[in-house]
Design a protein that fits this description.
Blueprint: E1 2-4, H1 8-11, H2 21-25, H3 31-41, E2 54-56, E3 59-60, E4 68-71, E5 80-84, E6 89-93, E7 97-99, E8 106-109, H4 119-130, E9 136-139, H5 149-162
Parallel strand pairs: 1-2, 6-9
Antiparallel strand pairs: 3-4, 4-5, 5-6, 7-8
Helix pairs in contact: 4-5
Length: 168
């Protein structure tokens, strides 16, 4: 497995940066949270530690596809997005998603606050994505987006201002 150098401890299980049970219990009245908790109870969200991790830094990786790592911390301390400039694609992972995992609402957005290790940093990481020249985004949740990163980030920022608790 490969991981950004600031994500290695998370991947190996040295520490975990994930939602706390109490945060979910406080929102259990929402049907979407109940569904998420059911999945988690079946082991659907329990990560397996990886024994061996090869660390990488920013920039192009020594892998096929001319893939560039772009640090987008917030969801976790070492979260990275990946740019495939030859194809106009950005893999945003959980830095910018296209579906709220709690409500199911579609649209470009940050993960809900409870799923981010440092939510304010996650919001700042949107700047890194907005600067990328691409026209397809592959988010960690929701359908792919045929939008420029700048436009997707603009929509996500609007939700930060106008959305409910689930989008802040």
């Amino acid at each position: 497995m490969h991981a950004h150098r600031t994500e290695v401890g998370h991947a190996t299980g040295e520490y975990q940066e994930r939602v706390q049970t109490i945060q979910l219990v406080a929102r259990i009245w929402r049907p979407s949270v109940i569904s998420f908790v059911r999945t988690a109870m079946r082991g659907g969200s329990e990560p397996d530690a990886v024994a061996e991790v090869k660390a990488f830094g920013e920039g192009y990786l020594d892998v096929p596809g001319h893939l560039a790592a772009i640090p987008t911390p917030g969801h976790t301390s070492g979260h990275c997005s990946f740019h495939l400039p030859d194809h106009g694609i950005v893999i945003t992972g959980d830095a910018l998603v296209n579906r709220n995992v709690l409500t199911g609402k579609p649209g470009p957005r940050l993960m809900p606050r409870i799923f981010s290790h440092d939510w304010e940093q996650a919001a700042r990481s949107l700047d890194e994505l907005a600067a990328i020249d691409a026209d397809v985004l592959l988010p960690g949740h929701g359908e792919l987006l045929y939008l420029s990163p700048a436009y997707a980030v603009q929509q996500a920022r609007e939700l930060l201002e106008t959305g409910g608790w689930w989008d802040r």
